[in-house]
Amino acid sequence: MNIFYGTGVAMVTPFHADGQIDYDGLRNLIEHLIDGGVEYLVSLGTTGESATLSEAERKQVWAFTAEVVNKRVGLVAGIGGNNTHEVVEQIKSFDIDGYDAILSASPHYNKPTQEGIYQHYKAIALNSKLPIILYNVPSRTGSTVSAETTVRLAKEFKNIIGIKEASGNFDLFNQLMRDKPEGFLFISGDDPVTLPMMALGGVGAISVIGNALPRQLSDMVRLLLNNDYKGAHAAHFDLIEFTRLMFTEGSPAGVKTALKQLGICGDTVRLPLVQVSEKTADAIATELKKLAPVAVKA
Q: Which one of 135, 180, 256, 260 is the catalytic residue?
């Protein structure tokens, strides 16, 4: 089965209290996720706070992650931005050793037309040695990759293999699933609606909550891949409140709080992000004890 069928996790980047990268914490997280049964990891997507890492830090994190993973699961690098030339140069110079694909969010802030989005991804596809997974996340970018643009890219560039969809737009999903070429991967990028997206034909998820609960999330995704919707419904309902809490005060602050409570890494985020309030942290702890009672640290 394709390595991108199943659960991918958009990994957080652990930091020490002084804001420096916590490589021991990152190692702990990688082992936690692999032990939790996920199919692949995403290093330095937006959940990894890539926007606040320097170029040197990003290269160090990518190299460290590939070394620790050691090809035990699939591995994807998040490389995107709103300067097409700069993104292309990053991709051309990227050390692909240990990596299976690149996840690239559509350009933020500029609000390009659909033709601009198409030309942006065309430039990436023509310069990448690795397969490309598109990423549509209008809540962060300020623009939407339409179904028509996604299908156009999927048909014209064989190395554009799928899309992480986080628009929440089911009209777009319906059109995309109807018109996409066979084999093009439709991946949930929005934890609350992974189940209905997979019911439409999605092949899995690139998840935030999976950082904390990889076993629970990947078990649910496998149930869906096996068309066991009754079992998946129960798992989905169990995760609803925890999922809501992960985004109540922004991501990845919520899931980093859960990871701290699990003893995997700290909850430090880099400004302009801040840690969650004590009230939300307490609510996360209460919910986490229901879902992973043995794992939660006192």
A: 135
